[in-house]
Amino acid sequence: MYFYENQVFTENIKLYEKLDGSCICVYKLYDENGEIIEYVPKSRQKAVLDKHFIEMYKLCDKRNISQMNENIDSIYMELYGMLNQHTIPYYKTYIDLALLGAYTGKKFLNDEEITKLSKYIQIKKPEQLGIIHIQPNEYKLELVDKYYTQTRNYNNKTGKSLDDILGYLKEYLDKLNTINITEKGKIRYEGAVLRDDGNYIKSKPKSYFEAEGRIILNVSPGEVKKEIHKILDERSELLLGDYDEKKVIEEININLEEEYDKTDVYHPRVQKMVLKQLHEFIETLPSKSLQNTVNDLIEENPGLSIGEYMQKFSRENPLLKHKSRLVYNMIIKKL
């Protein structure tokens, strides 16, 4: 989930390092009797990881994943390290996993639940950078880091809005990156992730986008398609509910801004491509008959988990297995 200017928070928000790797999901694959066959790693838009990611994943210590609670359907992790290097060089980590989140089929785990799961399956969470305290009429940034004298003035900074605090946070990360460039020749942080219950807000500093060695490509149709599928996975109501093209395009642009400069994202050529890719994708959305099939499945079998619904759908509709991703998101929206 991403930050919007009018978003309101009532609980303190924890800040974690945004690791510069690849986000993967590990989900439970069931047989027709509801027994777990295996734990399958996948990436966005892929039923399983590509071969080169599989080889890296095999090298990670994940022996306790099979011990996670029965009610957890999937977990989300960052695959990072020297073997999967992007911009940030993790010299002390060859390849490893960090636990980002988990899903039960009905809800995402909150931060406290993720901490417990992390200890249970022995896969660490990303480094905590600090906390944003929500106080009456103001926000306060508390940083865990007390090492650099150059950054001490950012600790306990206050602001009238979350946007003010995000500005301080980006300045702080830029300062740390500047120090690391001076001392080691490379930036240290890609950014931070703000975690509020099951919501995740990414914040990246200017220094990351300007980092030497960062691969910057023109916005491609493939990248636009990826962001549209991301919306289907994370905010399916925008596509499967009351469709508002303007809102969907705004969401695509917000996602693209994380990887590209605004001047590139809002270039007329890119915006024309976004519109074209969106129209092509809309044509692939479920027909009325598929919507009726999903509605009947839920109405006739109330109270099942998402995994149970998907098992039943696969058994009863073997010719529609290629629609499983759409069906998954349709069911999630209705639960």
Average pLDDT metric: 83
The overall strand count is 10
Which regions contain 5 or more consecutive residues with pLDDT less than 50? 1-6
Query: What is the terminal-to-terminal distance?
Result: 19 Å
Given helix and strand content, the structural type is: alpha+beta
What percent strand?
15-25%
Quick one: overall form? globular
As a whole number of angstroms, the C-alpha radius of gyration is: 21 Å
H/E element sequence = EEEHEEHEEEHEEHHHHHHHHH
Strand order of the largest sheet: 8-7-6-1-9-10
Share of residues in helices: 25-40%
Largest sheet: 6 strands, antiparallel
Number of helices: 12
Note the topology:
Blueprint: E1 13-17, E2 22-30, E3 36-42, H1 51-58, E4 74-80, E5 96-103, H2 111-121, E6 128-135, E7 138-143, E8 157-159, H3 162-184, E9 192-196, E10 199-203, H4 206-209, H5 221-234, H6 237-240, H7 245-257, H8 262-265, H9 268-282, H10 288-300, H11 306-316, H12 324-334
Antiparallel strand pairs: 1-6, 1-9, 2-3, 2-4, 4-5, 6-7, 7-8, 9-10
